[in-house]
Amino acid sequence: MQAAQTLELERLAFESKKDNESAxxxxxxxxxxxxxDLCLFEDPKVDALKLKIQDKSLIWLATQGMRxxxxxxxxxxxxxGKAQQKDESMQQAHGxxxxxxxxxxxxxxxxxxxxxxxxxxxxxxxxxxxxxxAAHTGALLISKDKAVLALTNRLARLxxxxxxxxxxxx
Length: 170
Hints:
Elements: H1 2-24, E1 26-30, H2 32-39, H3 47-54, E2 58-63, H4 64-74, H5 77-94, H6 98-108, E3 109-112, H7 128-137, E4 140-142, H8 146-149, H9 152-156, E5 162-163
Parallel strand pairs: 1-2, 1-4, 2-3, 4-5
């Protein structure tokens, strides 16, 4: 009987440790413009963010709607040329294509259900899904979008920190 109790205590301690470790890992919601900086433009301002995502010291939360928006944005004419150029140069340099970039997105994100509407509404309805998810999960919202950044103080009242890529510090 005592051995069974010891095993149960060890299991509970392990699960508690696992819960504490995951609580220490910061959750982030990343808007599409920053995703483009991460995956397409390779902007050095987001290098630290990229490393934190890759080493899983950040949990990147996203919804299917966010992925759908990324796919749609990648077909914009001014980005399509960059995406095709990226395909060719990445294929030559790293053997990577845009399809593989979307695969990276899929591997890096923790997919969530669409969140309920937040108390504050964004002027740009395309950005609302990022605000909703950050407000619902308490995640750091990383954005360069002026409409999102304009809500920084209001979202702080909900416990949501909004951060521009220029101010990212990890």
